[in-house]
Specification:
Number of strands: 8
CATH architecture of the largest domain: 3-Layer(aba) Sandwich
CATH class of the largest domain: Alpha Beta
Structural class: alpha/beta
Order of helices and strands: HHHHHEHHEHEHEHHHEEHEHEHHHHHH
Strand content: 5-15%
CATH topology of the largest domain: Rossmann fold
């Protein structure tokens, strides 16, 4: 299959070359920047927005919010003033590694996506907020930006259109909370990465108080192909597997034979992803449970493997598709240990802004460690279940703690016997957890 044909079925990864990504000349020879030229010469910003909205592209960062709808919330017109486009490339969700593949393997497609999306919302500046550890991605993106700038594709009066726009890479300091869009904006401004109260939403008052759109890397990578090929083509890529449009980057991590990332029609079943593309479990291991899209999603069981991996189907099953990268847990792993490891990560990455998250997550870790070591108290399971409610949606300032509770609540539901096995009949209840229950600290709801 030629590259031209491949781009029609795998628009995200057809150009990816991790060893030698395309430079500007090679990218343009493969049809690169045609979407930008088409947008500037044939389409208004409203036309681009409409095309993306009609495509049924849903955000690939985890929440699944329709991209075109998000863009439509931005004020437009000559009096709208300065606006910003921010790419959320702070990929720190455990078990997720798809955006790195795109940025390192096809940096010019990232740059073109930033320019076309910036045109669609009338932005003056774009920022790629990149995870600091992605050093290779930063080098390649900066090189691609410099090439585009030198060719007149960035800067003043782009391609004679009268539109001025530039784009920059901003490397973060390595905090998971920066994946939350308002914390990311605070960090971009040089502030502490704490989430902001909403409303106002970033589309109205974001970076430096101006209208701002934050999109994920994978979401943006779809924009140039949609502009070139149209909304109907994009919807057809799902091959009828989902009402959502496009392909999706799915992945597998854990004790599978072939861990990695695969571009497939959105709505492909989890079984096909794991068994056909991931090769199934390694010899000597059986699937016990799996996370559908990163650490902040609920565990599902082997009997859920035939579900379509799209946002609505996985939500109906009691979890979230999230980033769409499966993390498999094998039958030799203890679920208490698995969950304790995840909760340690979430506790460490809390920004500390609100009490339930700052104090509740470390308490969950203490109880899980006690259960893991066989010295848990009889009340610990009830306390952990209580934490899943008190740190749930609406109880904390942002979605960090509710996300942390998802794997815990599902593990308690499906694998309760493994938690009960860690209870010691002679264990004394830890003072700090006892005080927690008596004082009602975690009952305080964030205003």
């Amino acid at each position: 299959m030629s590259l031209e044909q491949d781009l029609l079925v795998k628009p995200l990864t057809a150009r990816v070359n991790l060893a030698a990504p395309q430079d500007l000349r090679t990218y343009e020879a493969s049809g690169g920047y045609l979407a930008l030229r088409k947008a500037l010469k044939e389409l208004s910003p409203a036309d681009v927005q409409s095309r993306v909205k009609d495509s049924n592209l849903r955000g690939r960062g985890g929440a699944g919010f329709p991209t075109g709808v998000k863009w439509g919330l931005v004020p437009m017109g000559p009096d709208a003033g300065a606006k910003y486009l921010v790419c959320n490339a702070d990929e720190m969700e455990p078990g997720t590694f798809k955006d790195r593949l795109l940025m390192e393997g096809a940096p010019h497609q990232m740059v073109e996506a930033m320019i076309v999306a910036g045109y669609a919302i009338g932005a003056c500046t774009g920022y790629i907020f990149l995870r600091g550890e992605y050093v290779v991605a930063a080098e390649r993106l900066n090189k691609a930006l410099a090439e585009a700038r030198a060719a007149g594709l960035l800067g003043q009066n782009i391609l004679g259109s009268g539109w001025n726009y530039d784009c920059f890479v901003h490397t973060g300091a390595g905090r998971y909370i920066c994946g939350e869009e308002t914390a990311l904006i605070n960090s971009l401004e040089g502030r502490r990465a704490n989430p902001r109260a909403k409303p106002p939403f970033p589309q109205i008052a974001g970076a430096w108080g101006r209208p701002t759109v934050v999109n994920n890397v994978e979401s943006l990578f779809n924009i140039p192909p949609i502009v070139i090929n149209g909304a109907d083509w994009f919807k057809g890529l799902s091959q009828g597997k989902s009402k959502d449009g496009g392909t999706k980057l799915y992945g597998v991590s854990g004790r599978a034979r072939r861990t990695g990332v695969y571009e497939l029609p959105i709505g492909t079943s989890a079984r096909e992803i794991l068994e056909d593309h991931g090769g199934g479990m390694k010899d000597g291991y059986r699937l016990k449970a799996w996370l559908p899209g990163g650490a902040s999603t609920d565990f599902l069981l082997p009997e859920h493997l035939d579900l379509a991996m799209d946002f609505d189907t996985i939500a109906k099953a009691g979890s979230r598709m999230g980033t769409g990268l499966l993390t498999v847990v094998d039958d030799k792993q203890n679920m208490v240990s698995v969950v304790r490891n995840l909760e340690e990560f979430f506790a460490r990455e809390s920004c500390g802004w609100c009490t339930p998250c700052r104090d509740g997550l470390p308490w969950s870790v203490k109880m899980l460690m006690a259960l893991e070591q066989g010295r848990g108290h009889a009340d610990d399971l009830a306390e952990l279940e209580r934490l899943t409610r008190l740190l749930g949606p609406g109880r904390t300032f942002c979605a960090h703690a509710p996300g942390a509770m998802e794997p815990l609540q599902s593990a308690l539901k499906f694998f309760r016997a493994e938690f009960e096995a860690g209870v010691s009949p002679t264990a004394a209840k830890a003072d700090d957890v006892h005080d927690l229950a008596q004082t009602g600290v975690l009952d305080a709801k964030v205003a």
